Amino acid sequence: MQFNYSAKTKQGELQSGVVEANDKQEAIEALQTRELIILALTPVSSQPVFARQIKFFQKVKSKELVAFSRQLSILFSAQVPLLPSLKTLVRQTSNPYFRDILFEVANDVEGGSPFSKALARHPKVFSGFVVNMIKSGETSGSLENSLTYLADYLEKQFYLISRVRGTMIYPAFILCGFLIVAVMMMIVVVPQLTNFLKETGQELPLATRVIIGLSDFLRSFWWLFALVIFGGAGWLWWKISKSVAARAKWDEIKLKLPIFGKVFQKVYLTRFAENLSTLVQGRLSILQALQVSSDVVGNAVFQKIILEAKEEVRVGTNLSVALSRHKEIPSLVTQMIATGEQTGSIDFILNKMAQFYSKEVDSTVDTLSQLIEPLLITAIGIGVAVLVAAILMPIYNIAGGM
Length: 402
Fold this sequence. Notes:
By secondary structure, the protein is mostly helical. It has helices spanning 24-33, 62-77, 82-92, 96-110, 115-120, 128-140, 143-200, 206-242, 244-256, 260-281, 286-296, 300-314, 319-323, 331-343, 346-401, and strands at residues 2-8, 14-20, 37-43. Helix 2 runs antiparallel to helix 3, helix 8 (206-242) crosses helix 9 (244-256) and helix 14 packs antiparallel against helix 15.
């Protein structure tokens, strides 16, 4: 396998060429043994298609990014220089895609690029929030504090999202399981009873006729049912992921969902408050902090609110006043921000507000977890009762008439 490389010597002379190796790591090690500082390293494009990495399916999980930030923070706090810390983490990273990215980051840093700029070259992995936090630490000379803030923030966000996602996945998994069992009964069990019931010649109840009709439809057009379910879900996912308008509409719908809408609102408020607090503590201006917070809040509705507030702040309006114009922002939030503006401690107030809403999310999720199980059991029980009654009622009628 061949790689095109661009590098410079310790004397500053630029070199370029092709190096042959089994993989990218081996190519980098081969160049480093020549005491070259690597500036760029890319596979030769003449590789067969099947041998190339399909980056569409590659990604860095949130858990991996959290682990990277925490380990880097610990190494840096232990007085290990940035470059050796990065190289150590490269060797420990099991995800090949993430390892390649960290290789490139380490090489950029070794070539003299600032750490924030090296991270900014990979926006799909390192968000604007991460880049700006590192940049503020480099500018103020407190990179260690910035790394600690960043690691704490990413851990909190990962824990928060995992809790909410876990609560939503459980009922979805149960309902899918029930749907699969119900379809199997319609296709396998109901047809065996249908012939018996029709042979009796008695008039069947409406519920039984509906179940038999549904069973016949599924047996004859199961492929259409599967196409509608899976094709529709796939199309909806593609539309939301590719269309800005569709994604914005979905974000709006999420905030209006019964029960879960309030959970989502509190999640976004927590994320907004934590982002803004951390960035302000990192000595970014309020306008920069609002811009970055809008990029990483994760909801189009809240992104629009923050950007509109940013423009009002730019012309001299207080942030609390700008946010109070939007019904999605509770009055408690605007009152606390107003207090922070009056006392000059907005970062402290935002941090306390983030802690408050984080606890609110935890409490709501715990309550939902306790309520969902009995609600699901009740709903599934009703479904099973209707299905069984529709089949057994005619059988009991036959037995009673004998």
